[in-house]
């Protein structure tokens, strides 16, 4: 029991200590470096114990010495005390202090307890307080007058037994009096009195205490099947009186034989790997007379049972019948490597008929996966690498080595060829492939062998392509083509691509294309067969393009053989540039002048069919020579005869030169004094002479004699 004097002495010492701390450190401050949490309200039944947990956490940076105290204003009615009233807390450390209140002698129903929390540390002294409220509910009556003595039994529900089995009852006798009582136990109605045993039959119960008596009832072997009521009697004697307490219970007896047997269970512990699911075939057979209902259940540690699934739980079987089922055990990869045990129990209602022990050992697994490369390619005549990834999908760390199988006219090795992986880790590995110019183009199969130290080796095969390197120096097709093609927007341009076959055999269906341009923007000659050691020209015609510089590649292809040559298509904006200079104007005769001019094409477009004329009707212009073409940057001489239709006295005229492309150039020139050109009448005399001759012929014909 709680010592009131001792409690008062402790409280006085704590209060004196707190006063001394106050004198040393001055006025205390709120404990900002302590975090105090408590359940401030509680309600309990009278006669029970109330508990108030108080959690204190050091949120400061110094070590804190914590002291708790409380003033008990309810002496004689309540007993209060701490499980521990002081403690030392390191930074971030938390501790729970418990304040207890015994309510056996409570003389009220509402109580208030002030709690003081003091702390000292290098940071200084501080104090805090909490107020705890307690409400007490009167205990329910037990059927005994005055609630001085209370008697109960457990279990008190119906229990089923087979003949020959036993059951234990716990009988509780609580003495709430202030004096010792004398008690005895027996049974006033008991078919099994001769086979009932008590731990004590006569005993004493101290004030404010409880005595527990065990009563064991055994059903005789020949007990008929029925329900039997057993009434235990507890007789108590105190200074005032003698009281009897009756405790009835019911026992059901089964008279038929019940036998179940679990068959097919594992003889020894099973070994199951991480990620493995094991089906354990089992059977159940009824050797008894009862048909059920029967039940199966698993008993064991929660970890073990969490991996086990029992499909058969409730069933019925006739005498001699059997049933079969699979016990499923699945071990996740997170399961701890250990030995697990559990029991399978077969019951009829609550009676245990059969029990089997089962165990399994969880072991890790070593396993891996290879992530293969997709659309892998290696250039011929060079060294390249294919990347694949090895992942440890097992639950054990393991060491791995990589081996490679030979390739067709190529060498291969892994880099790195050995490494270690923890569970879930991956390693990127390069399969280095060395090819030569005689390595055949096309697909090959790469086979790698992954050898883990703790598991069986596996071969992984994936396809990759040996392709032409596209370099003319590393291909049997050599390209000779211009590296720059200049053209004018709006025009077409032709380029000649020569393709040489250096292979020792003919290259059929060799074609040329342009990479970097739409196929709608160029045309090329059809494919050809190129003899061994021969060259074939291909004319590529570039259609009208927008101005700009286009990086392109001429591509020669024959089957898988391919070669590329870099080039630039430079397209410039069309630029006009027709111009001319008058070099000389001379007149050897009075009625005409010869104009010598120099034509120039300053643009970037070829000009054709250049013509000369003048807008005036006073003169005729007659070209003495024709300029059919004038290339960009080219100059040509043109002579023009000027014949006046009127007399000119230093007349100025406009000389205009135009091309078939619409280019026009004009210049004003001054003519020397020229006479009007007289037109001859020779045409009229000739006409008269012809007419006269025609008349004469007609006359001659008319005078010819007739026969």
What does it look like?
With 707 residues, the chain is mostly beta strands. The strands form 12 sheets. Strands 1, 3, 5, 7, 9 and 10 form a 6-stranded mixed beta sheet that branches. The protein is elongated, with a radius of gyration of 60 Å. It starts with a helix and ends with a helix. Mean pLDDT is 83; it is low at 1-28, 140-146 and 679-683.
* Arithmetic mean pLDDT: 83
Number of strands: 55
The radius of gyration computed from the alpha-carbon positions, rounded to a whole number of angstroms, is: 60 Å
Please estimate the helix content.
under 10%
- Number of helices, where a helix is a run of at least 4 consecutive DSSP H or I residues: 3
The residue ranges in which pLDDT falls below 50 over 5 or more consecutive positions are 1-28, 140-146, 679-683
The shape, in one word, is elongated
Overall SS class: mainly beta
- The multimeric state of the shown protein is single chain
The major sheet is characterized as: 6 strands, mixed
Strand content: over 45%
Distance between the termini: 189 Å
Lay out the secondary structure:
Blueprint (H helix, E strand, L loop, with lengths): L3 H22 L3 E2 L3 E5 L2 E5 L3 E10 L5 E7 L8 E4 L3 E4 L4 E9 L7 E12 L2 E14 L11 E6 L4 E3 L4 E10 L5 E9 L6 E3 L3 E4 L3 E10 L7 E12 L4 E12 L6 E4 L6 E4 L3 E10 L7 E7 L1 H4 L2 E2 L4 E2 L6 E9 L8 E10 L2 E13 L4 E4 L5 E3 L3 E10 L5 E7 L5 E6 L2 E4 L4 E10 L6 E11 L5 E10 L2 E2 L5 E4 L3 E5 L4 E9 L5 E9 L6 E3 L3 E3 L4 E8 L5 E11 L2 E12 L5 E12 L2 E10 L5 E7 L5 E5 L3 E4 L4 E10 L7 E7 L5 E7 L11 H22 L4
């Amino acid at each position: 029991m709680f010592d009131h004097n001792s409690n008062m002495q402790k409280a006085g010492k704590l209060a004196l200590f707190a006063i001394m701390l106050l004198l040393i450190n001055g006025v205390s401050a709120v404990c900002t470096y302590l975090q105090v949490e408590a359940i401030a309200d509680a309600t309990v039944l009278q006669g029970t114990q109330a508990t108030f947990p108080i959690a204190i956490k050091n949120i400061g940076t110094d070590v804190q010495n914590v002291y708790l105290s409380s003033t008990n204003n309810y002496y004689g009615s309540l007993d209060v005390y701490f499980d521990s009233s002081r403690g030392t807390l390191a930074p971030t450390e938390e501790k729970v202090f418990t304040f207890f209140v015994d309510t056996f002698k409570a003389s009220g129903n509402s109580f208030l307890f002030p709690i003081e929390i003091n702390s000292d540390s290098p940071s200084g002294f501080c104090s805090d307080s909490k107020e705890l409220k307690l409400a007490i509910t009167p205990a329910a009556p037990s059927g005994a007058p005055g609630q001085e003595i209370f008697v109960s039994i457990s279990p008190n529900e119906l229990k089923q037994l087979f003949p020959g089995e036993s059951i234990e009852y716990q009988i509780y006798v609580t003495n709430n009096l202030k004096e010792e009582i004398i008690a005895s136990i027996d049974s006033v109605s008991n078919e099994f009195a001769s086979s009932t045993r008590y731990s004590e039959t006569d005993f004493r119960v101290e004030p404010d205490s409880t005595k527990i008596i065990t009563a064991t009832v055994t059903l005789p072997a020949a007990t008929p099947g029925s329900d039997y009521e057993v009434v235990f009697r507890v007789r108590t004697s105190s200074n005032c009186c003698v009281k009897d307490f009756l405790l009835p219970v019911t026992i059901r007896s089964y008279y038929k034989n019940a036998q179940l047997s679990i068959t097919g269970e594992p003889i020894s512990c099973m070994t199951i790997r991480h990620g493995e699911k094991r089906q354990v075939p089992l059977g159940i057979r009824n050797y008894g007379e009862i048909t059920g209902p029967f039940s199966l259940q698993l008993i064991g540690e929660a970890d073990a049972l969490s991996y086990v699934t029992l499909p058969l739980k409730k069933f019925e079987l006739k005498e001699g019948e059997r049933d079969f089922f699979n016990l499923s055990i699945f071990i996740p990869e997170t399961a701890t490597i250990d030995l697990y045990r559990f029991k399978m129990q077969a019951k009829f209602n609550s009676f245990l008929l059969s029990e089997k022990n089962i165990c399994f050992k969880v072991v890790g697994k070593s396993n891996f996966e290879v992530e293969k490369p997709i659309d892998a390619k290696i250039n011929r005549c060079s060294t390249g690498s294919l990347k694949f990834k090895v992942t440890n999908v097992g639950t054990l760390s393991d060491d791995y080595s990589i081996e490679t199988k030979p390739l067709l006219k190529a060498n291969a090795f892994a880099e790195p060829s050995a490494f270690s992986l923890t569970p879930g880790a991956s390693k990127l590995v390069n399969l280095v492939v060395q090819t030569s110019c005689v390595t055949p183009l096309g697909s090959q199969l790469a086979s790698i062998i992954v050898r883990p130290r703790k598991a069986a080796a596996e071969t992984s095969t994936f396809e990759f392509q040996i392709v032409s390197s596209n370099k003319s120096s590393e291909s049997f097709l050599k390209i000779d083509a211009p590296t720059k093609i200049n053209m004018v927007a709006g025009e077409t341009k032709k380029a000649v691509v020569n393709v040489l076959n250096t292979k020792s055999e003919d290259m059929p269906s060799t074609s040329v294309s342009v990479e970097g341009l739409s196929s709608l923007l160029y045309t090329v000659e059809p494919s050809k067969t190129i003899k061994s050691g021969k060259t074939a020209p291909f004319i590529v015609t570039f259609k009208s393009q927008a101005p700009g510089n286009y990086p392109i590649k001429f591509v020669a292809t024959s089957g898988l053989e391919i070669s590329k040559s870099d080039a630039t298509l430079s397209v410039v904006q069309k630029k006009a540039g027709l111009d001319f200079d008058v070099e000389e104007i001379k007149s050897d005769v009075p009625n005409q002048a010869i104009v010598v001019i120099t034509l120039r094409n300053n643009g970037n477009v070829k000009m054709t069919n250049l013509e000369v004329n003048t807008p005036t009707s006073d003169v005729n212009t007659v070209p003495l020579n024709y300029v059919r073409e004038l290339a960009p940057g080219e100059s040509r001489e043109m002579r023009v005869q000027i014949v006046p239709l009127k007399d000119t006295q230093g007349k100025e005229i406009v000389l205009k030169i135009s091309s078939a492309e619409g280019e026009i150039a004009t210049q004003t020139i001054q003519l020397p004094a020229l006479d009007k050109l007289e037109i001859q009448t020779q045409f009229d005399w000739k006409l008269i002479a012809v007419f006269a001759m025609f008349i004469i012929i007609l006359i001659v014909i008319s005078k010819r004699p007739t026969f």
